[in-house]
Amino acid sequence: MALMADTQRTLSPGPRGVWGWLTTVDHKRIGLLYAVTAALFFFIGGVEALLVRMQLFQPNGEVLSSDAYNQLFTMHGLTMVFLVIMPIAAAFTNYFLPILVGARDVAFPRLNAFSYWLFLFSGLLVYSSFLVGGAPDGAWVGYAPLSTQLEEVVRMDFWTVGLQLLGVASIASSANFIATVFTMRAPGMTMLRMPVFVWMALVVAFLLIFSLPAVGIGLFQLFIDRNFGGLFYAAEAGADPLLWQHLFWVFGHPEVYVLILPAMGIVSEVLPVFSRKPLFGYPFIVFSGAAIGFIGFGVWSHHMFTSGMGPIAEAGFGVATMIIAVPTGVKIFNWIGTTWGGRIRFSTPMLFSLGFIAMFVIGGLSGVTHSVIPADTQQHDTYYVVAHFHYVLFGGAVFGYVAGVYYWFPKWTGRLLDESLGKLHFWLALIGFNLTFGPMHILGLNGQPRRTYRYGENLGWDFWNQIATIGAFIILVSFLVFAWNIISSHFLRRGRPAGRDPWDGRTLEWTIESPPPVHNFDEVPQVHALDEFWHRKYAEDDEGRAVRMPDVTGGAVTVETDSGGDGDAHGDIHMPSPSYYPALASAGLVTMGAGFVYLPWGWLAVGVGAVISMWAFFGWSLEPITREH
């Protein structure tokens, strides 16, 4: 047994300044890069949403032209799904997954950096379309034949190439996380001792690896149709445009769980801490998450009940949609069971977690109505569907991730966010969210179609559209409060110092300094139980009540040393060397992508990008792997 000292060895984080961020392979810094980038895209996507709401504030709106409206709602959907919610999940996973499993980094640090830079450059490629004739305008789902029409060739080619590159980044990242979980867990951390967040990240990684190739094939075929006269989706040539919908939704519905499962994992970490109880039914939470991932591959065609698949297929997918509600309901009841009888602290992370549960329940109930095929036929392509998926992805996923920011911010920065501002943020967000998306249920049931930039007078839609627009601006105010809280707490250094364990946490990240050192752990911890840190701090008295252990003081905890080959307190710690090759390889691939958008004269850019990428990958393969400290 050895004591983790307060004074830790100082390991150099590598180059500083801009060059340090460009060459970093530290999983924590890459997580922060993902978080900042996602926040910037969240702001852009929010502005797009506000412009759409302003256009719909009153009948016959004149804020946007039809062309601008089509570009903005397309880019809003693409941005929020691929450039905000997915990367913010990647931010949490990058930063905390290795620490939660007791590792010093991910399995492939350079591949991790490559994933981030490819994501960033691909997002910038898609957004550069605004500067060269207009952004993608065929909706984020890109249905053929709308997306294969050639009047606006460049716009949807940006969408096709950008999504293909984003898919490559996600697959690389997913393979990395899977390898990390299976090969780098601390001694004693069995699969059923892993935190729920790690489990959900693992399920998401498998979902992406199995689902992205389907949409990748579809995007490849779509690109050939648009640029080389292919006929994969041309009905006039005997092909079936519904093939695109099947390929897209084989990815697109598991994608919903890619977006929501990490937020479920975060909520599963927050609730026990602020309820002062273990997570109720840990195995059920874990296996229901895995079941959601598995069943999620069998429900894709409930997006296509109006496409004429026939009654047998529709009945099968309707039943599957009902079945997937079961493991989701299991999670909800387990979360409620966790809070039941607990000594609840209504701190901001807990408020957003409870808000997540409430809003996700509403979104889930409206989603179950889509399993009723006649009802879905009425609701399809109306604002009812818009309300449903925003209750799942905003009230659900975004609320969950915001809970994670408030929960882990002290670990990132060493300072606590202001609780008063946090609670103001929560109530404004909750009120604004429900004012925005609640009325859309009514608008949809009253027949307002989505993706139309104007509506006439005397249709009964005016009032609820005005309420929804007002709600959208309240959401804006709530996130301005959130941004100010972050700026004042961290950058103006007004936040209270957090110490190692400000929440009396249960998992391994709270055993180390805030912010964590470069190498995470001086000694790789030995794990003996689920909620390992809690069991180091507390024992039970004769009546089963938690009693603080007397030998845990000041954040120093008793740990066992693992003397494995990765170094320990008595030897060197090997950390990955900084490298600029991942960023360079990503830049080369995106240069190739930009060239493909502008064929045939883009072949030069394709060649230049290929040379840059090949040279970068070659240099990457010859670089020293680690640096010693």
Can you tell me about this structure?
The chain has a single domain (26-576), classed as Cytochrome C Oxidase, Chain A (Up-down Bundle). The protein has helices spanning 17-23, 27-55, 66-100, 109-127, 153-183, 196-227, 242-275, 282-295, 311-339, 348-368, 373-379, 383-413, 419-445, 462-491, 532-537, 581-597, 603-622, and strands at 2-3, 538-540, 546-548, 558-559, 574-576, 626-628. The longest helix has 35 residues, at 66-100. The strands form three sheets. A two-stranded antiparallel sheet has the order 1-4. It has 629 residues and is an all-alpha fold. The two termini are 23 Å apart. The protein has 17 helices and six strands. Helix 4 (109-127) runs parallel beside helix 16, helix 10 (348-368) runs antiparallel to helix 12 and helix 13 (419-445) runs antiparallel to helix 14 (462-491). Helices cover 62% and strands 3% of the residues. The protein is globular and about 75 Å long.
Structural class label? mainly alpha
Radius of gyration over C-alpha positions, nearest whole angstrom: 25 Å
Largest sheet: 2 strands, antiparallel
Q: Tell me the β content.
A: under 5%
- CATH secondary-structure class: Mainly Alpha
pLDDT below 50 for ≥5 consecutive residues: which ranges? 1-9, 552-561, 563-570
- CATH homologous superfamily heading: Cytochrome c oxidase-like, subunit I domain
Strand order of the largest sheet: 1-4
Please tell me what the overall shape is: globular
- Which architecture name does CATH use? Up-down Bundle
SSE pattern, N- to C-terminal: EHHHHHHHHHHHHHHHEEEEHHE
Beta-strand segment tally = 6
CATH topology: Cytochrome C Oxidase, Chain A
